[in-house]
Amino acid sequence: MKFLLVFDFDHTIVDENSDTWIVRCAPEKKLPNGLRNSYRPGYWTEYMDRVFVYLGDNGVKEDEMKRTMTTIPFTAGMVDLLGFVGENKELFDCIIVSDSNTVFIDWILKAADFHKVFDEVFTNPAAFSSTGYLTVQNFHAHRCAKCPKNLCKRKVLKEFLDKQLERGVSYTQIVYIGDGGNDLCPVMLLKKHDIAMPRQGYTLEKKISQLARDLNPVECSVLVWSSAIDIMSYLTALMKK
To answer: Active site at which residues (predicted)?
Structure first.
């Protein structure tokens, strides 16, 4: 018996959006209107690349960014949940699929000593250039019309599961923990014995509810959470089955 836990990052593991949290490093902790208004739907990664150029142009260095990012709060109960998963790694494989970036997630997980809990992190690759500017790229190319152009989480999850099967690893159940609109696409991949855990009051919960009202419900079970302790209770019960 082995379970796969799939986590989103922003508003799921951490209680904020890591990409908007970094704005605290900007002069007066805000971005100029022209830059803010340059965002086009579906092109968030390109927008963030411009934000990082602005921070670099204003002399914001790597160590200041790192200090700021490691103050981002974890969601209620998440520290307990990740500690619990870390103690039971023989039962749980654990991955992150996120529209944040490798640098932010790495900083945050390592500062809290949670990086060993996760087997793999799938997110937009980021790095500091030779001039000290943070740069970010799209995770991959895909053909999914429902997802932002840089990341289809369903494609990521399917490729991961296929790769695991080739290694002889299959999962008794997949537990998908997320909050955003871009988490619906991977949830649609889940089967009857899997479970989606949308965060209460967030877009994913609303979209799943709308599908049920439209008589086109998701195939998997759905359990809403407001604190990560709710998730831990479910996993504890799962282990006793």
So the answer is: 8 (nucleophile), 10 (proton donor)
